[in-house]
Amino acid sequence: MIELDRRTREMIEEVRELGRLHIRQMGLDADQSAMPPPVDHEFYYICARQDGLVSRMVGADEGSGALDWKPFRNFLVGEEAAYWDRGVALSLPGPGLGGPAMRSTATPEQRQRFLEVFTDHSKPRWGAMAMTEPGAGSDVARIATRARKDGDEWVLTGQKMFCSNSARAEWVVVWATVDPSLGREGHRAFVVERGMPGFEILKIEHKMGSRGYETASFTLDDVRVPAENLLGGEEFYQSRAGFKASMATFNMTRPLHTAHGVGMGRAAHDFALDFVKAEYPKHSRRRQLAMERLARIRRGLHTARLMYLNAVWLAKTGKSNALEASYAKMYSPPIILEAVTAALEILGEAGVRNDKMLEKLYRDVKILDIGEGTQQVQRVVVARQLFDFPRDK
Ligand SMILES: Cc1cc2nc3c(=O)[nH]c(=O)nc-3n(C[C@H](O)[C@H](O)[C@H](O)COP(=O)(O)OP(=O)(O)OC[C@H]3O[C@@H](n4cnc5c(N)ncnc54)[C@H](O)[C@@H]3O)c2cc1C
Protein backbone atom coordinates (compact mmCIF):
# COMPACT_ATOMS: atom_id res chain seq x y z
CA MET A 1 0.00 0.00 0.00
CA ILE A 2 1.13 3.56 -0.70
CA GLU A 3 2.62 5.24 2.36
CA LEU A 4 0.71 8.45 3.09
CA ASP A 5 2.42 11.42 4.70
CA ARG A 6 1.61 12.37 8.29
CA ARG A 7 -0.55 15.41 7.49
CA THR A 8 -2.69 13.48 5.00
CA ARG A 9 -3.23 10.70 7.56
CA GLU A 10 -4.18 13.27 10.20
CA MET A 11 -6.66 14.92 7.87
CA ILE A 12 -8.27 11.62 6.95
CA GLU A 13 -8.59 10.90 10.69
CA GLU A 14 -10.22 14.30 11.30
CA VAL A 15 -12.81 13.60 8.60
CA ARG A 16 -13.35 10.08 9.95
CA GLU A 17 -14.21 11.58 13.31
CA LEU A 18 -16.60 14.11 11.74
CA GLY A 19 -18.09 11.27 9.74
CA ARG A 20 -18.74 9.19 12.85
CA LEU A 21 -20.14 12.14 14.80
CA HIS A 22 -22.14 14.00 12.15
CA ILE A 23 -21.92 13.11 8.47
CA ARG A 24 -23.40 9.58 8.46
CA GLN A 25 -26.38 10.55 10.60
CA MET A 26 -27.04 13.75 8.64
CA GLY A 27 -27.12 11.68 5.45
CA LEU A 28 -29.60 9.22 6.94
CA ASP A 29 -31.81 12.07 8.19
CA ALA A 30 -31.73 13.81 4.80
CA ASP A 31 -32.65 10.55 3.12
CA GLN A 32 -35.60 9.90 5.41
CA SER A 33 -36.98 13.43 5.12
CA ALA A 34 -35.99 13.75 1.40
CA MET A 35 -34.54 17.16 2.34
CA PRO A 36 -30.87 18.14 2.50
CA PRO A 37 -29.68 19.58 5.83
CA PRO A 38 -30.81 23.23 6.16
CA VAL A 39 -28.30 26.02 5.49
CA ASP A 40 -28.20 26.90 9.18
CA HIS A 41 -27.35 23.36 10.29
CA GLU A 42 -24.85 23.48 13.15
CA PHE A 43 -22.45 21.17 11.30
CA TYR A 44 -22.03 23.66 8.45
CA TYR A 45 -20.93 26.28 11.00
CA ILE A 46 -18.46 23.80 12.49
CA CYS A 47 -17.07 23.18 9.00
CA ALA A 48 -16.97 26.85 8.04
CA ARG A 49 -14.83 27.55 11.13
CA GLN A 50 -12.27 24.84 10.29
CA ASP A 51 -9.96 26.53 7.84
CA GLY A 52 -9.45 24.49 4.69
CA LEU A 53 -11.04 21.29 5.94
CA VAL A 54 -14.22 21.70 3.95
CA SER A 55 -12.43 22.35 0.69
CA ARG A 56 -10.53 19.14 1.25
CA MET A 57 -13.64 17.15 1.99
CA VAL A 58 -15.23 18.31 -1.23
CA GLY A 59 -11.95 17.83 -3.08
CA ALA A 60 -11.02 21.42 -3.85
CA ASP A 61 -7.58 22.11 -5.19
CA GLU A 62 -4.77 23.76 -3.26
CA GLY A 63 -3.22 24.83 -6.51
CA SER A 64 0.13 23.13 -5.96
CA GLY A 65 1.93 21.93 -9.06
CA ALA A 66 4.63 20.20 -7.04
CA LEU A 67 4.82 16.45 -6.88
CA ASP A 68 4.03 15.90 -3.23
CA TRP A 69 1.01 14.60 -1.37
CA LYS A 70 -0.91 17.87 -1.37
CA PRO A 71 -2.65 17.41 -4.72
CA PHE A 72 -3.76 13.88 -3.82
CA ARG A 73 -4.69 14.79 -0.28
CA ASN A 74 -7.95 16.49 -1.20
CA PHE A 75 -9.10 13.53 -3.23
CA LEU A 76 -8.21 11.03 -0.50
CA VAL A 77 -9.97 13.16 2.10
CA GLY A 78 -12.95 13.50 -0.29
CA GLU A 79 -13.01 9.71 -0.54
CA GLU A 80 -13.16 9.47 3.25
CA ALA A 81 -15.98 12.04 3.51
CA ALA A 82 -18.01 10.09 0.91
CA TYR A 83 -17.43 6.92 2.93
CA TRP A 84 -19.65 8.48 5.61
CA ASP A 85 -22.12 10.11 3.21
CA ARG A 86 -21.39 11.48 -0.24
CA GLY A 87 -24.55 13.58 -0.34
CA VAL A 88 -23.62 15.43 2.83
CA ALA A 89 -20.00 15.73 1.65
CA LEU A 90 -21.26 17.49 -1.48
CA SER A 91 -23.50 19.75 0.57
CA LEU A 92 -20.61 21.12 2.61
CA PRO A 93 -19.99 24.85 2.32
CA GLY A 94 -17.41 26.03 -0.21
CA PRO A 95 -17.23 26.78 -3.94
CA GLY A 96 -18.31 23.21 -4.85
CA LEU A 97 -18.28 22.48 -8.57
CA GLY A 98 -17.78 26.22 -9.09
CA GLY A 99 -14.24 25.77 -7.69
CA PRO A 100 -12.75 23.74 -10.58
CA ALA A 101 -14.45 26.10 -13.06
CA MET A 102 -12.88 29.09 -11.27
CA ARG A 103 -9.45 27.50 -11.33
CA SER A 104 -9.55 26.49 -14.99
CA THR A 105 -11.03 29.73 -16.29
CA ALA A 106 -10.92 32.78 -13.98
CA THR A 107 -8.28 35.53 -13.93
CA PRO A 108 -6.27 35.89 -10.67
CA GLU A 109 -8.37 38.98 -9.80
CA GLN A 110 -11.62 37.09 -10.31
CA ARG A 111 -10.38 34.15 -8.25
CA GLN A 112 -9.49 36.56 -5.47
CA ARG A 113 -12.87 38.29 -5.69
CA PHE A 114 -15.12 35.26 -5.84
CA LEU A 115 -13.20 32.87 -3.61
CA GLU A 116 -12.50 35.47 -0.90
CA VAL A 117 -16.03 35.07 0.42
CA PHE A 118 -15.09 31.57 1.63
CA THR A 119 -12.31 32.91 3.82
CA ASP A 120 -14.89 34.58 6.04
CA HIS A 121 -15.44 31.84 8.60
CA SER A 122 -18.35 33.49 10.40
CA LYS A 123 -20.97 31.58 8.39
CA PRO A 124 -21.19 28.85 5.77
CA ARG A 125 -21.36 29.86 2.12
CA TRP A 126 -21.69 27.94 -1.14
CA GLY A 127 -20.79 28.22 -4.82
CA ALA A 128 -22.15 26.19 -7.77
CA MET A 129 -21.65 25.47 -11.45
CA ALA A 130 -24.42 25.21 -14.05
CA MET A 131 -23.88 23.56 -17.39
CA THR A 132 -26.84 21.15 -17.76
CA GLU A 133 -30.05 22.36 -19.41
CA PRO A 134 -33.32 20.68 -20.40
CA GLY A 135 -31.88 20.16 -23.93
CA ALA A 136 -28.20 19.72 -23.06
CA GLY A 137 -26.92 17.06 -20.67
CA SER A 138 -24.20 14.77 -21.97
CA ASP A 139 -23.80 16.85 -25.09
CA VAL A 140 -22.73 20.09 -23.49
CA ALA A 141 -22.12 21.63 -26.92
CA ARG A 142 -25.90 22.01 -27.19
CA ILE A 143 -26.33 24.52 -24.37
CA ALA A 144 -28.84 27.18 -25.42
CA THR A 145 -28.61 29.73 -22.59
CA ARG A 146 -27.80 32.92 -24.49
CA ALA A 147 -25.29 35.60 -23.56
CA ARG A 148 -25.65 38.96 -25.29
CA LYS A 149 -23.29 41.90 -24.78
CA ASP A 150 -25.01 45.19 -23.96
CA GLY A 151 -22.56 48.01 -23.21
CA ASP A 152 -20.57 47.11 -20.11
CA GLU A 153 -22.88 44.24 -19.27
CA TRP A 154 -23.80 40.80 -20.47
CA VAL A 155 -27.45 39.77 -20.58
CA LEU A 156 -28.15 36.09 -19.84
CA THR A 157 -31.35 34.29 -20.81
CA GLY A 158 -32.13 30.61 -20.44
CA GLN A 159 -32.81 27.75 -18.11
CA LYS A 160 -30.50 25.46 -16.15
CA MET A 161 -31.33 22.24 -14.37
CA PHE A 162 -29.77 19.74 -11.96
CA CYS A 163 -27.45 22.35 -10.51
CA SER A 164 -26.00 21.20 -7.19
CA ASN A 165 -26.20 23.67 -4.29
CA SER A 166 -27.35 26.53 -6.56
CA ALA A 167 -30.37 27.37 -4.40
CA ARG A 168 -28.07 28.22 -1.48
CA ALA A 169 -25.12 29.59 -3.45
CA GLU A 170 -23.54 33.04 -3.19
CA TRP A 171 -22.71 32.72 -6.88
CA VAL A 172 -23.15 30.23 -9.71
CA VAL A 173 -20.74 29.79 -12.62
CA VAL A 174 -23.17 29.70 -15.56
CA TRP A 175 -22.07 28.40 -18.95
CA ALA A 176 -23.83 30.17 -21.83
CA THR A 177 -23.35 30.64 -25.56
CA VAL A 178 -22.81 33.84 -27.51
CA ASP A 179 -23.94 32.06 -30.68
CA PRO A 180 -25.30 28.48 -30.78
CA SER A 181 -24.18 28.08 -34.42
CA LEU A 182 -20.56 28.28 -33.18
CA GLY A 183 -21.05 25.10 -31.15
CA ARG A 184 -18.45 24.69 -28.44
CA GLU A 185 -16.52 27.74 -29.55
CA GLY A 186 -19.42 29.98 -28.56
CA HIS A 187 -19.24 28.96 -24.87
CA ARG A 188 -18.56 31.52 -22.15
CA ALA A 189 -18.65 31.18 -18.35
CA PHE A 190 -20.26 33.92 -16.23
CA VAL A 191 -20.55 34.40 -12.51
CA VAL A 192 -24.17 35.05 -11.60
CA GLU A 193 -24.42 36.36 -8.07
CA ARG A 194 -27.22 35.72 -5.64
CA GLY A 195 -29.90 38.40 -5.78
CA MET A 196 -29.19 39.52 -9.36
CA PRO A 197 -32.61 40.41 -10.82
CA GLY A 198 -33.97 37.70 -13.16
CA PHE A 199 -32.11 34.82 -11.47
CA GLU A 200 -34.85 32.66 -10.03
CA ILE A 201 -34.80 29.18 -8.51
CA LEU A 202 -37.66 27.18 -10.04
CA LYS A 203 -37.58 24.03 -7.94
CA ILE A 204 -35.43 21.75 -5.83
CA GLU A 205 -35.44 18.27 -7.38
CA HIS A 206 -36.76 15.26 -5.54
CA LYS A 207 -33.98 12.69 -6.00
CA MET A 208 -33.99 8.88 -5.67
CA GLY A 209 -30.74 9.04 -3.70
CA SER A 210 -27.83 11.28 -2.69
CA ARG A 211 -30.39 13.43 -0.90
CA GLY A 212 -27.84 15.01 1.44
CA TYR A 213 -27.28 17.80 -1.09
CA GLU A 214 -29.82 19.75 -3.04
CA THR A 215 -30.07 19.93 -6.80
CA ALA A 216 -32.10 22.76 -8.31
CA SER A 217 -33.43 24.14 -11.59
CA PHE A 218 -33.34 27.87 -12.22
CA THR A 219 -34.20 30.43 -14.88
CA LEU A 220 -32.19 33.37 -16.14
CA ASP A 221 -34.60 35.98 -17.34
CA ASP A 222 -32.48 38.77 -18.88
CA VAL A 223 -30.04 38.68 -15.99
CA ARG A 224 -27.61 41.59 -16.31
CA VAL A 225 -24.07 40.57 -15.39
CA PRO A 226 -21.20 43.09 -15.30
CA ALA A 227 -18.42 42.52 -17.86
CA GLU A 228 -16.00 41.75 -14.99
CA ASN A 229 -18.06 38.59 -14.27
CA LEU A 230 -17.14 37.00 -17.60
CA LEU A 231 -14.68 34.40 -16.31
CA GLY A 232 -11.24 34.74 -17.84
CA GLY A 233 -12.13 37.95 -19.71
CA GLU A 234 -12.94 38.17 -23.44
CA GLU A 235 -9.47 37.29 -24.72
CA PHE A 236 -9.54 33.98 -22.86
CA TYR A 237 -12.16 32.64 -25.27
CA GLN A 238 -10.12 32.90 -28.44
CA SER A 239 -9.06 29.60 -30.05
CA ARG A 240 -11.62 27.22 -28.46
CA ALA A 241 -10.43 28.14 -24.97
CA GLY A 242 -13.98 28.27 -23.59
CA PHE A 243 -14.74 24.69 -24.47
CA LYS A 244 -11.27 23.56 -23.39
CA ALA A 245 -11.85 25.25 -20.04
CA SER A 246 -15.16 23.47 -19.47
CA MET A 247 -13.50 20.17 -20.39
CA ALA A 248 -10.56 20.94 -18.07
CA THR A 249 -13.16 21.26 -15.30
CA PHE A 250 -14.39 17.72 -16.04
CA ASN A 251 -10.85 16.37 -16.09
CA MET A 252 -10.59 17.17 -12.39
CA THR A 253 -14.18 16.48 -11.35
CA ARG A 254 -14.17 12.99 -12.92
CA PRO A 255 -11.34 11.75 -10.68
CA LEU A 256 -13.12 13.36 -7.73
CA HIS A 257 -16.32 11.55 -8.64
CA THR A 258 -14.32 8.32 -8.70
CA ALA A 259 -12.77 9.11 -5.30
CA HIS A 260 -16.26 9.59 -3.86
CA GLY A 261 -17.37 6.31 -5.42
CA VAL A 262 -14.45 4.44 -3.88
CA GLY A 263 -15.49 5.84 -0.49
CA MET A 264 -19.07 4.62 -1.00
CA GLY A 265 -17.88 1.21 -2.18
CA ARG A 266 -15.65 0.90 0.89
CA ALA A 267 -18.61 1.70 3.12
CA ALA A 268 -20.64 -1.14 1.56
CA HIS A 269 -17.67 -3.49 1.76
CA ASP A 270 -17.13 -2.74 5.46
CA PHE A 271 -20.81 -3.29 6.28
CA ALA A 272 -20.67 -6.69 4.63
CA LEU A 273 -17.35 -7.65 6.22
CA ASP A 274 -18.57 -6.80 9.72
CA PHE A 275 -21.72 -8.82 9.10
CA VAL A 276 -19.85 -11.85 7.79
CA LYS A 277 -17.48 -11.79 10.78
CA ALA A 278 -20.36 -11.53 13.24
CA GLU A 279 -22.99 -13.76 11.66
CA TYR A 280 -21.49 -16.33 9.30
CA PRO A 281 -20.18 -19.45 11.08
CA LYS A 282 -16.40 -19.70 11.19
CA HIS A 283 -14.87 -22.15 8.67
CA SER A 284 -18.21 -22.42 6.82
CA ARG A 285 -18.29 -22.58 3.03
CA ARG A 286 -20.71 -19.68 3.08
CA ARG A 287 -18.23 -17.52 4.94
CA GLN A 288 -15.40 -18.48 2.63
CA LEU A 289 -17.42 -17.62 -0.48
CA ALA A 290 -18.48 -14.26 0.97
CA MET A 291 -14.87 -13.45 1.90
CA GLU A 292 -13.68 -14.31 -1.61
CA ARG A 293 -16.33 -12.04 -3.09
CA LEU A 294 -15.34 -9.21 -0.75
CA ALA A 295 -11.65 -9.69 -1.59
CA ARG A 296 -12.52 -9.29 -5.29
CA ILE A 297 -14.42 -6.10 -4.53
CA ARG A 298 -11.53 -4.78 -2.48
CA ARG A 299 -9.16 -5.33 -5.41
CA GLY A 300 -11.57 -3.48 -7.69
CA LEU A 301 -11.84 -0.54 -5.29
CA HIS A 302 -8.06 -0.41 -4.93
CA THR A 303 -7.70 -0.33 -8.72
CA ALA A 304 -10.27 2.48 -8.96
CA ARG A 305 -8.30 4.44 -6.37
CA LEU A 306 -5.04 4.01 -8.28
CA MET A 307 -6.86 5.14 -11.43
CA TYR A 308 -8.11 8.39 -9.92
CA LEU A 309 -4.73 9.08 -8.30
CA ASN A 310 -3.06 8.51 -11.65
CA ALA A 311 -5.44 10.99 -13.34
CA VAL A 312 -4.76 13.57 -10.60
CA TRP A 313 -1.00 13.04 -10.81
CA LEU A 314 -0.99 13.61 -14.58
CA ALA A 315 -3.00 16.83 -14.22
CA LYS A 316 -0.79 18.11 -11.42
CA THR A 317 2.38 17.48 -13.38
CA GLY A 318 0.98 19.44 -16.29
CA LYS A 319 0.20 16.48 -18.53
CA SER A 320 -3.05 15.70 -20.33
CA ASN A 321 -5.26 13.46 -18.20
CA ALA A 322 -8.47 13.42 -20.26
CA LEU A 323 -8.10 9.73 -21.14
CA GLU A 324 -7.13 8.65 -17.63
CA ALA A 325 -9.91 10.75 -16.01
CA SER A 326 -12.43 8.99 -18.27
CA TYR A 327 -10.87 5.58 -17.60
CA ALA A 328 -11.35 6.13 -13.86
CA LYS A 329 -14.87 7.49 -14.28
CA MET A 330 -15.83 4.59 -16.55
CA TYR A 331 -14.23 1.82 -14.52
CA SER A 332 -15.51 2.67 -11.07
CA PRO A 333 -19.39 2.66 -11.11
CA PRO A 334 -19.79 -1.07 -11.90
CA ILE A 335 -17.31 -1.99 -9.14
CA ILE A 336 -19.08 0.26 -6.65
CA LEU A 337 -22.49 -1.07 -7.61
CA GLU A 338 -21.13 -4.61 -7.20
CA ALA A 339 -19.83 -3.66 -3.72
CA VAL A 340 -23.28 -2.45 -2.67
CA THR A 341 -25.10 -5.36 -4.34
CA ALA A 342 -22.79 -7.90 -2.71
CA ALA A 343 -23.28 -6.27 0.69
CA LEU A 344 -27.07 -6.33 0.27
CA GLU A 345 -26.96 -10.00 -0.69
CA ILE A 346 -24.64 -10.89 2.18
CA LEU A 347 -26.82 -9.12 4.73
CA GLY A 348 -29.97 -10.54 3.14
CA GLU A 349 -33.20 -9.37 4.69
CA ALA A 350 -31.30 -7.22 7.21
CA GLY A 351 -29.72 -5.24 4.36
CA VAL A 352 -32.82 -4.16 2.49
CA ARG A 353 -34.62 -2.68 5.46
CA ASN A 354 -35.12 1.05 5.07
CA ASP A 355 -33.45 1.84 8.39
CA LYS A 356 -30.18 0.42 7.07
CA MET A 357 -27.49 2.41 5.33
CA LEU A 358 -27.18 -0.19 2.54
CA GLU A 359 -30.63 0.28 1.09
CA LYS A 360 -29.85 3.99 0.92
CA LEU A 361 -26.39 3.40 -0.59
CA TYR A 362 -27.99 1.32 -3.33
CA ARG A 363 -30.01 4.37 -4.38
CA ASP A 364 -27.16 6.82 -3.70
CA VAL A 365 -24.62 5.19 -6.02
CA LYS A 366 -26.71 5.59 -9.20
CA ILE A 367 -25.57 9.19 -9.57
CA LEU A 368 -22.00 7.95 -10.06
CA ASP A 369 -23.11 6.64 -13.43
CA ILE A 370 -24.74 9.93 -14.47
CA GLY A 371 -22.84 12.97 -13.17
CA GLU A 372 -19.67 14.26 -14.89
CA GLY A 373 -20.49 12.26 -18.01
CA THR A 374 -22.44 9.02 -18.12
CA GLN A 375 -20.94 5.56 -18.58
CA GLN A 376 -21.84 5.55 -22.29
CA VAL A 377 -20.41 9.02 -22.82
CA GLN A 378 -17.11 8.02 -21.17
CA ARG A 379 -16.86 5.19 -23.68
CA VAL A 380 -17.34 7.68 -26.51
CA VAL A 381 -14.71 10.01 -25.00
CA VAL A 382 -12.22 7.16 -24.64
CA ALA A 383 -12.89 5.83 -28.14
CA ARG A 384 -12.35 9.31 -29.56
CA GLN A 385 -9.00 9.58 -27.88
CA LEU A 386 -7.78 6.11 -28.78
CA PHE A 387 -9.15 5.75 -32.30
CA ASP A 388 -10.40 7.87 -35.11
CA PHE A 389 -13.91 7.81 -33.67
CA PRO A 390 -16.41 10.16 -35.38
CA ARG A 391 -16.98 13.46 -33.59
CA ASP A 392 -20.35 15.27 -33.53
CA LYS A 393 -20.35 18.76 -34.96
C1 LIG B 1 -27.78 14.56 -8.57
C2 LIG B 1 -27.29 15.31 -9.77
C3 LIG B 1 -26.49 16.42 -9.61
C4 LIG B 1 -26.06 17.16 -10.73
N1 LIG B 1 -25.34 18.30 -10.53
C5 LIG B 1 -25.00 19.06 -11.62
C6 LIG B 1 -24.37 20.33 -11.45
O1 LIG B 1 -24.06 20.77 -10.33
N2 LIG B 1 -24.12 21.07 -12.56
C7 LIG B 1 -24.44 20.64 -13.83
O2 LIG B 1 -24.20 21.36 -14.78
N3 LIG B 1 -25.05 19.44 -14.02
C8 LIG B 1 -25.34 18.64 -12.95
N4 LIG B 1 -25.99 17.44 -13.14
C9 LIG B 1 -26.38 17.02 -14.49
C10 LIG B 1 -25.56 15.87 -15.04
O3 LIG B 1 -24.27 16.32 -15.38
C11 LIG B 1 -26.34 15.33 -16.26
O4 LIG B 1 -27.47 14.65 -15.75
C12 LIG B 1 -25.50 14.42 -17.11
O5 LIG B 1 -24.57 15.17 -17.83
C13 LIG B 1 -26.33 13.58 -18.09
O6 LIG B 1 -27.19 14.40 -18.82
P1 LIG B 1 -28.75 14.05 -18.99
O7 LIG B 1 -29.25 13.67 -17.63
O8 LIG B 1 -29.41 15.17 -19.69
O9 LIG B 1 -28.79 12.75 -19.87
P2 LIG B 1 -28.71 12.67 -21.46
O10 LIG B 1 -27.51 13.40 -21.95
O11 LIG B 1 -30.02 13.04 -22.03
O12 LIG B 1 -28.46 11.11 -21.68
C14 LIG B 1 -29.53 10.16 -21.60
C15 LIG B 1 -28.92 8.79 -21.93
O13 LIG B 1 -28.37 8.79 -23.25
C16 LIG B 1 -27.01 8.38 -23.23
N5 LIG B 1 -26.24 9.12 -24.23
C17 LIG B 1 -26.20 10.46 -24.41
N6 LIG B 1 -25.35 10.77 -25.41
C18 LIG B 1 -24.82 9.61 -25.86
C19 LIG B 1 -23.88 9.28 -26.89
N7 LIG B 1 -23.29 10.22 -27.65
N8 LIG B 1 -23.59 7.97 -27.06
C20 LIG B 1 -24.17 7.01 -26.31
N9 LIG B 1 -25.08 7.26 -25.34
C21 LIG B 1 -25.39 8.55 -25.12
C22 LIG B 1 -26.54 8.69 -21.83
O14 LIG B 1 -25.46 7.87 -21.44
C23 LIG B 1 -27.79 8.41 -20.99
O15 LIG B 1 -27.85 7.05 -20.68
C24 LIG B 1 -26.41 16.70 -12.03
C25 LIG B 1 -27.17 15.53 -12.19
C26 LIG B 1 -27.63 14.85 -11.08
C27 LIG B 1 -28.47 13.61 -11.31
What does this structure look like?
It is a single chain. The protein has 393 residues and is an alpha+beta fold. The protein folds into three domains: 6-93, no CATH class; 99-237, Butyryl-CoA Dehydrogenase, subunit A, domain 2 (Beta Barrel), CATH 2.40.110; 242-386, Butyryl-CoA Dehydrogenase, subunit A, domain 3 (Up-down Bundle), CATH 1.20.140.10. It is built from 13 helices and seven strands. Strands 2-3-7-6 form a four-stranded antiparallel sheet, with no helix packed on it. Bound molecules: flavin-adenine dinucleotide (FAD).
Q: What's a quick, concise take on this entry?
A:
This protein has 393 residues and is an alpha+beta fold. Helix content is 52%, strand content 14%.
Under CATH, the homologous superfamily of the largest domain reads Butyryl-CoA Dehydrogenase, subunit A, domain 3
The main sheet comes to: 4 strands, antiparallel
How are the strands ordered across the major sheet?
2-3-7-6
Q: What is the CATH class name of the largest domain? A: Mainly Alpha
Summary tags:
four-stranded antiparallel β-sheet; 3 domains; three-stranded mixed β-sheet; Butyryl-CoA Dehydrogenase, subunit A, domain 3; binds flavin-adenine dinucleotide; Butyryl-CoA Dehydrogenase, subunit A, domain 2; alpha+beta; globular; 393 residues
Layout of secondary structure:
Blueprint (H helix, E strand, L loop, with lengths): L5 H28 L8 H8 L3 H5 L12 H22 L6 H8 L2 H8 L10 E5 L15 E5 L2 E12 L4 E9 L9 E7 L5 E6 L10 E12 L14 H39 L5 H32 L5 H26 L1 H4 L4 H8 L2 H4 L4 H12 L7
Helix pairs in contact: 1-4, 4-7, 5-7, 7-8, 7-9, 8-9, 9-11, 9-13
Flavin-adenine dinucleotide binds next to strand 1, strand 3, helix 12 and helix 13.
